[in-house]
Amino acid sequence: MMLLKINNLCKSFGGLSAVLNFNLEIRENELIGLIGPNGAGKTTVFNLITGVYKPDAGEIIFKGENIGGLPPYVICQKGIARTFQNIRLFNNLTVMENVKIALHKNVPYSLPAALFRLNSFYRGEKEIEEEAIRWLKLFNLDHRREEIASSLPYGEQRRLEIARALATHPTLLILDEPAAGMNPNETLELMELIRRLRDEFKLAILLIEHDMSLVMGVCERIYVLDYGQVIAEGKPEEIRNNKRVIEAYLGEEV
Ligand SMILES: Nc1ncnc2c1ncn2[C@@H]1O[C@H](COP(=O)(O)OP(=O)(O)OP(=O)(O)O)[C@@H](O)[C@H]1O
């Protein structure tokens, strides 16, 4: 079933068309890559989908509803979660607190229960704590539970950011350069993790990545952006041999 359908999306900054008549389709449980040279408009597309920017024109249809221009927290509630190119954790909070914040999107108690500290508040908080621990175990971060997020090694901060995104129970997970700054071993582990998450949580995943081994290794379909426009779309082997794509990367290895 179709999950996300983007029609003729446009966004300019001053006189510059960062995204121009952009179209994309993602079905449930698909793993899609968005690639392109620096400045091609990839992050702008992510910022449009997640409500950071309002589209100038076009539609972003998610589960049949146009979500273009809605605020980020509403888009998150509708089932889209993301990570950022430069990791954005709550640096001064613990690992556990970072995940608990995401779980407070759907608190299992009422406002009066929280204000008057009713039993349902304590029960709800316990449920949140237990779920946070389940997420940390899944991402092999449980032993770091009480550590401050910014003190974690880089690869673990990336994993924590993905755990926090998943704790909002998305149906579409958007990853902006998840392998940036990782060594080849960490990248291999990340590829394994991305495949596992997609299968276990029946997720659709859209990722931007400059690491071609990761994109070609995990994505089923790839969209290639250049100067804000899609210049190619297809399976990894089709993209690898596409003349326009090779030209856009000007001899870079695809
Ligand atoms: N907030 C903004 N204000 C002005 N220009 C912007 C803004 N955001 C992006 N741009 C411009 O839009 C174009 C597309 O940028 P974008 O960050 O989306 O590209 P990208 O494909 O994600 O690049 P990279 O791979 O380097 O991250 C660039 O020319 C960029 O300078």
Report the bound ligands by name, code or SMILES: adenosine-5'-triphosphate
Task: Please outline the major beta sheet.
Answer: 6 strands, mixed
Proportion of residues in helical segments: 25-40%
Superfamily (CATH H level) name of the domain at 2-79 and 170-248: P-loop containing nucleotide triphosphate hydrolases
What is the strand arrangement across the widest sheet?
6-7-8-3-9-10
Pfam family, one: ABC_tran
GO molecular function, one term: L-isoleucine transmembrane transporter activity
InterPro entries: AAA+_ATPase (IPR003593), ABC_AA/LPS_Transport (IPR051120), ABC_transporter-like_ATP-bd (IPR003439), BCA_ABC_TP_C (IPR032823), P-loop_NTPase (IPR027417)
Keywords: ATP-binding, Nucleotide-binding, Transport
What does this entry show, briefly?
The chain has 254 residues and is an alpha/beta fold.
Give an overview of the whole structure.
This protein has 254 residues and is α/β, with parallel strands linked by helices. The strands form 2 sheets. Strands 6-7-8-3-9-10 form a 6-stranded mixed sheet, sandwiched between helices. Strands 2-1-4-5 form a 4-stranded antiparallel sheet, covered by helices on one side. A hairpin with a 2-residue loop joins strand 9 and strand 10. The radius of gyration is 19 Å and the shape is globular. Bound molecules: adenosine-5'-triphosphate. The site of adenosine-5'-triphosphate (ATP) has 11 residues, from strand 2 and helix 1. Adenosine-5'-triphosphate binds next to strand 2 and helix 1.
